[in-house]
Amino acid sequence: MSKQGVLQRIFRLQEHGTTVRTEVIAGITTFLTMVYIVFVNPQILGVAGMDTQAVFVTTCLIAAFGSILMGLFANLPVALAPAMGLNAFFAFVVVGAMGYSWQVGMGAIFWGAVGLLILTLLRVRYWMIANIPLSLRVGITAGIGLFIAMMGLKNAGIIVPNPDTLVAVGNLTSHSVLLGALGFFIIAILASRNIHAAVLISMVVTTAIGWMLGDVKFVGLFSAPPSITSVVGQVDIKGAFNIGMAGVIFSFMLVNLFDSSGTLIGVTDKAGLTDETGTFPRMQQALYVDSISSVSGALAGTSSVTAYIESTSGVAIGGRTGLMAVVTGLLFLLVTFLSPLAAMVPSYAAAGALIYVGVLMTASLSRVRWDDLTEAVPAFVTAAMMPFSFSITEGIALGFIAYCVMKLGTGRWREISPCVVIVALLFVLKIVFVDAH
C-alpha cells in the first residue's frame, strides 16, 4: 500500500472530503499561526525563575505530543499547546504574588490537570460546561484576556507601578514601549488582513529592530536542543497538595475545562463536524487527549495544555482530519533546534502578542446580555476582578458568588444550576475557612 493509501486509511480523508495535500497545507498554516507560543511561554515562565531554554524545548515537545495524539487518537483537526493566560497566572500570581516556588506551582497545575482527567473519565465534564451559564464562561475568558493584556503592557513598559495611583504610563519614548506598541499594531493590522502568521511576523520584525538598536545580541539560529533536566520531573506534587492551594488548583482545572472544551467545540463547528447539540465525533477521545496532555505538561515543566483556537486557520483552508494536527505537531518537533533564536526574543517583542491575545479574549464580552443585569453583573465582576485583584482565582470566585446573589435577589433562583451552586459554595468555604486564616 502506498503512503497516500496508508494516510487515507488512518485518517479517512476521502470520507471527510479532503486530501493529503490540503491537510499538510492546513497543518503548516496552523503551525505558523500558533508557533508564537514557543517564544512567549519561556519568557513568561522565566519570570517564575524557570530555565527559559529548557522551557522552550518542553513547550515544543508538549505541543508536538498533544497535537500528534489528538490527530492519531481522535482524528480531529485540532492542535494543542501550553495555554496562554494560565501561564501568566502561574508565573505572576502563584509564584510572584503568592510566593510559592515554581515547583509547587507546577504541582498545582498537575493536580488541576488530574482533576480535569477525573471529570473526563467520570463523563461529567460536558455536563459542567452545559450547566455553567454563558455570562460566567464569557466573563472568565474576558477576564483572563484583560489579565494577559495587563502583563503585556507591563512587559513593554507601557504601564509601570506608581505608589499614588497604583499604575501609571511609562516612558513612551523608550525602545521597549515603542517596539512593544509597534509589535501589537503589526499583529492587529496583519490579522485584520487575514495573514495567519501575523504574530510570528511581528515578533521577527521587532526582534530584528531590537538587534539593530543594540538591544538584542545575535547568537545564531540552530543548535542541538538544550537539556531539559532542570524542569522535567521537578514538579512538587506533595507540596501543592494542601488546603491553601485549593483555590489555585480549582482555578487551573476550571479555566482549562472551559478553555479547551470551548475551543474543541468552536474548531469542530467551524469544520462542520458538530451537531445541533454542540457534540462532535470522537468527542470523548478528544477530551481524554486534552486531559492527558495537561497532566504530561505539568510533569514536563510547562503550563496547562489546551486546544488552540488558532486551529481554525487550518480548518478555514480545508483541514478536516487529524492529519492536520499531526503535521502541526511534527513541525513543533523541528522547532526544538531553534533554541538560539528563541533566546534572542526580547520581552517587548512578546508583549505585543500578549496584548493582542487580550483583545481576542476580551471580545467575548459582546455575547453577554447587557440588558439583563442578572447576567451582566456576574460577567463584569468576573472579568474586572481578575486584573484588578491580580488573581484569576478571585475573579472566578466572586463571579460565581455574584451570579447566585443576583439570581436570588431578583427571585430568579430557579435559573441557578446545581453546578453553579456547588462551585459558589466551595468558593465561599474557601474564603471563610482558608483566606480568612
Please provide a written account of the structure.
One of its GO terms (molecular function) is adenine transmembrane transporter activity. Belongs to the nucleobase:cation symporter-2 (NCS2) (TC 2.A.40) family. Azg-like subfamily. Helices cover 67% and strands 3% of the residues. The longest helix has 25 residues, at 246-270. It is mainly alpha-helical. Strand 2 (159-162) and strand 3 form a beta hairpin. It has a two-stranded antiparallel ribbon. Strands 2-3 form a two-stranded antiparallel sheet.
Rg estimate, integer Å: 21 Å
Distance between the termini: 67 Å
Secondary-structure element pattern, one letter each: HHHHEHHHHEEHHHHHEHHHHHHH
Shape: globular
Strand order of the largest sheet: 1-4
Counted beta strands: 4
Helical amount among residues, as a percent range? 55-70%
What's the number of helices? 20
Indicate the proportion of strand residues. under 5%
Q: Number of domains in the coordinates?
A: 2
Which residues form runs of ≥5 with pLDDT under 50? none
Structural class: mainly alpha
Subcellular location: Cell membrane
Membrane topology: Multi-pass membrane protein
Main location: membrane
Family: Belongs to the nucleobase:cation symporter-2 (NCS2) (TC 2.A.40) family. Azg-like subfamily.
Compact summary:
This protein is mostly helical.
What key phrases describe this protein's structure?
437 residues; mainly alpha; two-stranded antiparallel sheet; 20 helices; 4 strands; 67% helix; globular; cell membrane
SSE topology sketch:
Elements: H1 3-11, H2 20-34, H3 37-46, H4 52-74, E1 80-82, H5 86-97, H6 102-121, H7 125-131, H8 134-156, E2 159-162, E3 166-169, H9 175-192, H10 198-212, H11 237-240, H12 246-270, H13 283-300, E4 305-307, H14 311-316, H15 322-335, H16 339-344, H17 347-362, H18 373-389, H19 392-409, H20 418-435
Antiparallel strand pairs: 1-4, 2-3
Helix pairs in contact: 2-15, 3-4, 3-5, 4-13, 4-15, 5-6, 6-12, 6-13, 8-9, 8-17, 8-18, 8-19, 9-10, 9-17, 10-17, 12-19, 18-19, 19-20
Protein name: AGZA family xanthine/uracil permease-like MFS transporter
Transmembrane segments: 20-39, 54-76, 83-102, 108-126, 138-160, 172-191, 198-219, 239-258, 287-309, 321-341, 348-368, 380-404, 416-434
Subcellular location: Cell membrane
